[in-house]
Design brief:
By secondary structure, the chain is of the alpha/beta class. It is built from 14 helices and ten strands. It has one domain: Alpha-Beta Barrel (TIM Barrel), CATH 3.20.20.100.
Length: 423
């Protein structure tokens, strides 16, 4: 294995007052002596400069593991069922060993913690492989999330949740600890203060938000500052289906001003912006139902993405991911196969031209989760709280079932041995 080379840094004038890279046309400058449209994608530092202790991603792309849960319930919830151990290992090793991808995103709510366990197992195997082969990869960067369920009210509940996540991941400290949602009867500042206290104790290296709008980002950053911490990133839905939304544009501007990196989940719109989208496939995509959009609504945007894909010899997904990177965000991609993993990294080391990005911006739709009314976001918290209870019940039943099978097998084995001793 070879160590992936660190990519060229942006010039100092492309940073804001906290040392973070600005989103601007600076992203589209052609490097001196490079071929048109071909360059090394710059590294990205989350929430600060490397000199100031920020977390640097040598490859500005992340892998989401929401569908890496292991439980029976995941098999019912995940479209296509659970991923096998072999499939997850194959995807992880391809991305880590061959492409140098560092950032993997998980949560205690993904598979009731089993996604974290699976990621922890894969990292443990990587450490063993590195020892055996003398490899020197950039270390993995792991983000996980605290879910403010309705059963949680105290700062101690966040402490216990983080300790449990770190144990499942096999880490002393998570690289980034996100607050999964700002919607809870307790104010957002309550959870930010609790997370900052854990970071000050060394249990998390950086703090993040998830699903926070502009006003919530401002409040969170102010609260973190009071405790000697900063907010490194905000994980939100960020794609061409919602970039026309005023709420998203305002959130992007505030994040840029405050030096908060956007982690872009659903960058290809759950498949709405990829090839071979039929009406049958469209009807199964949850985000389309939630937004109340039709296939006809998406077609003009899809045609623009397809045109650019053909021009650059790339897939539609790669164009969407590259557009995300051009906006200074880190795309978070869910991979269910080796083919999807390889296609995702194909979004790196080339770039759209500035006028192409502007054309896509103009064609973007205005669907956004940030503009949902509070009551709908509140329903999500109720749903996810019930889901977490279901995960606990599912894992408890699986444990009981496993013990029953073990006892049954042990009893049968003992009976067979006893029978064998009878003359």
């Amino acid at each position: 294995m070879t160590t992936p080379a660190l990519h060229a840094e942006l010039p100092l004038e492309a940073r804001d007052n906290r040392g973070n890279r600005r989103h601007a046309a600076l992203w589209h400058r052609k490097p001196s002596g490079s071929a048109s449209g071909v360059f090394a994608t710059p590294a990205v530092t989350l929430g600060g400069s490397p000199e100031g202790g920020g977390i640097t991603l040598s490859r500005p792309i992340g892998i989401g593991t929401m569908q890496w849960g292991r439980t029976w319930l995941d098999g019912k919830l995940n479209r296509g069922g659970n991923l096998s151990e072999h499939a997850c290992r194959e995807i992880y090793q391809e991305l880590r060993y061959k492409h140098g991808v560092q950032f993997f995103d998980t949560a205690e709510g993904y598979g009731g913690g089993t996604s974290e366990e699976r990621l922890g197992d894969l990292m443990a195997q990587e450490r063993q492989d590195a020892t055996d082969a003398g490899a020197n990869l950039h270390p993995p960067i792991i983000g996980t999330k605290f879910l403010p369920q309705l059963a949680r009210w105290t700062k101690w509940s966040l402490h216990r949740a983080l300790a449990a996540s770190n144990a499942r991941l096999g880490l002393q400290a998570s690289d980034i600890y996100f607050i999964h949602t700002p919607v809870h009867p307790m104010p957002l500042e309550h959870w930010v203060a609790a997370a900052a206290r854990e970071a000050n104790k060394g249990h998390a290296k950086a703090l993040g938000l998830s699903n926070c709008n502009a006003e919530q980002v401002k409040r969170a950053c102010a609260e973190a500052k009071r405790h000697g911490q900063t907010i490194a990133c905000n994980q939100i839905m960020f794609n061409l289906l919602c970039y026309g939304s005023p709420a998203l544009r305002e959130t992007e501007a505030v994040c840029r001003e405050l030096g908060v990196t956007i982690i872009a989940y659903s960058p290809i719109g759950q498949g709405l912006l990829t090839r071979d989208l039929t009406q049958e496939k469209f009807d199964t995509i949850r985000v389309a139902k939630m937004a109340g959009i039709s296939l006809a609504d998406v077609q003009p945007l899809r045609q623009e993405v397809q045109r650019l894909a053909e021009r650059h010899g790339k897939s539609m997904a790669q164009v969407c991911l590259n557009w995300t990177i051009c906006h200074g965000a880190v795309p978070l991609v869910g991979c269910r196969s080796l083919a999807q993993a390889r296609d995702s990294v194909g979004a790196l080391d080339w770039r759209l031209e500035e006028e192409e990005v502007e054309r896509l911006d103009a064609a973007a739709l205005s669907m956004s989760t940030l503009a949902k009314p509070k009551w709908r976001r509140g329903l999500f918290v109720v749903f996810i709280s019930l889901l977490m209870l279901s995960y606990k019940a599912s894992r408890a039943l699986e444990a009981v079932f496993s013990r029953s099978l073990w006892r049954s097998g042990w009893a049968k084995g003992s009976a067979a041995k006893s029978k064998g001793r009878v003359p």
